[in-house]
Amino acid sequence: MSKKVQEFNEYRSKMNEKILSSDNKVIKRIFNLDTNAYAEGHLSVKTKELLGLVASAVLRCDDCIAYHLDTAYKSGVTKEEMMETMSIATLVGGTIVIPHLRRAVEFWEALEEETPN
Amino acid sequence: MSKKVQEFNEYRSKMNEKILSSDNKVIKRIFNLDTNAYAEGHLSVKTKELLGLVASAVLRCDDCIAYHLDTAYKSGVTKEEMMETMSIATLVGGTIVIPHLRRAVEFWEALEEETPN
Amino acid sequence: MSKKVQEFNEYRSKMNEKILSSDNKVIKRIFNLDTNAYAEGHLSVKTKELLGLVASAVLRCDDCIAYHLDTAYKSGVTKEEMMETMSIATLVGGTIVIPHLRRAVEFWEALEEETPN
Amino acid sequence: MSKKVQEFNEYRSKMNEKILSSDNKVIKRIFNLDTNAYAEGHLSVKTKELLGLVASAVLRCDDCIAYHLDTAYKSGVTKEEMMETMSIATLVGGTIVIPHLRRAVEFWEALEEETPN
Amino acid sequence: MSKKVQEFNEYRSKMNEKILSSDNKVIKRIFNLDTNAYAEGHLSVKTKELLGLVASAVLRCDDCIAYHLDTAYKSGVTKEEMMETMSIATLVGGTIVIPHLRRAVEFWEALEEETPN
Amino acid sequence: MSKKVQEFNEYRSKMNEKILSSDNKVIKRIFNLDTNAYAEGHLSVKTKELLGLVASAVLRCDDCIAYHLDTAYKSGVTKEEMMETMSIATLVGGTIVIPHLRRAVEFWEALEEETPN
């Protein structure tokens, strides 16, 4: 597995476990909601992942972008679709999104190396 | 035409005209890009409008939300799809998105009154 | 009741009802969480309301500020405590918070007129 | 005086007075700093006003934009310079800045009507 | 001392010193205000630290979060109170706050290792 | 060349090349606009670089700040002018800008080491 992707996933899992082992119900429910919100509904999983990606990109959250790139890649999103999504993020959110676009393209390459389509 | 929708469109058109009549090339090109970015591509117009909507919602820009609700409505997005998009925005962007969700639902109703599907 | 406070509450209630009458579970659960998060816990209701207020202020959400001013006022927060909370918001969030501080002070006066302590 | 400009200035003055009459030292000092920061220094007043304008624009604070348009106009900034500043804001901050650009152009016209250069 | 906490504090001190040795009065005064704003007042130091923490969390500033975790820990805030504060931040600011919550929990553990309560 | 500056520039160039080799026209045009917007116009290159710097600073984008520090340094901006620009950013954007100010001062020193004026 690509070191970049693996490190990201391991840190994420380790800390999520610690957070969920605390007694805080509000945080637990937000984590649960996160799973529900991206499930198949009136919109497809793929569309929802792209919605999560563009929201993460304009809010400039690298870890959130990486997470949605990962799930988008697994749900069959192509590089062209990902780039089109990121182009809307860059237009709406401005050139301050570009550094996150650079890291997104780098992470996407790591995903491609890890599991070639 | 619904007064709410009409007023929004008239102000928007009037001011866009003034802005584009200035000699500023950078602004003119950004306005042009806005048209290109939402055109049919690897992703459908409908998906792109939802991407524009969710980006506008998490960045909490009422006028941008109204604009994308209008174009989304015209490209056949259903109320359920719009609400699902806004639910992702509210989850990713937090409860501060809720006041914008209220105004979005109000604007959507104005669109429905104006042109029943 | 102060017209300002009444109008705010009426619009809020009317739109919340419409939103909650839709079939969107994610949004319903976020609304529920909002109630739970500010309930007495390891921290008092009053402290939590001030946390909600400062978060709303630095994120510059007027409706969220108004909502937390209302509940803070009802849970016995004094004007001095409210101003101290807003001063931290203005320092952390910068002078762009000042226009929201102006409207917060105006809304607080409306609350004082409505129900003198 | 243009009604738009006058109303803005009156509300601003009235609320600032109320805020400064409270006993909160932190807020008072931030208000003082605001005056100092835009005074002639290594950079000219005009350049500083444009810096304040672009910062207000990318942070999408209409009242802050109006304030800096007013002071920029009075310190001799031309419409072309203002538009160039706003074009950088729109590029860096994205198309979500456009609704604020519309209102900025409208406010600038009100300033021009009030005191023709 | 925990390496994580030590490195953070050393870099912070070194750079603050450089910044304060420049001739910029506005920056110096903002640094001073920062000390005043969190001093005992109408609200307790502990409450103010939690206000600083939640503001830093919703604005997603890791260094600011670390700083307030450090001072909150020293003023006797418990882990449960910290988590409750962060749960309000995550609800108000949305799931984009979660990556910062992960790093906050990690930093808190470093503080606990350094000086067990 | 300073390692810090060199690494920043190399990563930036490498990723920009990858991004521009994709078929996405919207992104390409935004990259082009970025060049045009900072060219001599009604405002000087130096003023425009400072506008780009303050916008990047209040939006808290470290890579954007580094980029504008680099171009500002090359266009003859002095340390005092840079600090005055950053002081406006810190006032308008709040104390959450301070961590970025620390890294900006560090990057500026790397630029000074690399090419003494």
Features:
mainly alpha; homohexamer; 77% helix; AhpD-like; 6 helices; 117 residues; AhpD-like (chains A, B, C, D, E, F)
Which class of chain A in CATH terms?
Mainly Alpha
Q: Treating each run of at least 4 consecutive H or I residues as one helix, how many helices of chain A?
A: 6
Largest interface pair: A-B, 31 and 31 residues
- The computed structural class of chain A is mainly alpha
Tell how many strands the DSSP assignment of chain A holds: 0
| Oligomeric state as shown | homohexamer
The profile of the biggest β sheet of chain A is: none
Low-pLDDT stretches of chain A are: none
Estimated share of beta-strand residues of chain A:
under 5%
CATH level-4 homologous superfamily of chain A: AhpD-like
SSE order of chain A in H/E notation? HHHHHH
Mass-distribution shape of chain A: globular
Estimate the helix proportion of chain A, in percent: over 70%
Which CATH-level-2 architecture of chain A? Up-down Bundle
- Could you give the distance between the termini of chain A? 14 Å
Average pLDDT of chain A, rounded to a whole number, is 95
User: Number of domains in the coordinates of chain A?
Assistant: 1
Organism (chains A, B, C, D, E, F): Tenacibaculum jejuense
Domain Carboxymuconolactone decarboxylase-like (chains A, B, C, D, E, F): 28-106
GO molecular function, one term (chains A, B, C, D, E, F): peroxiredoxin activity
InterPro entries (chains A, B, C, D, E, F): AhpD-like (IPR029032), AhpD_core (IPR004675), CMD-like (IPR003779)
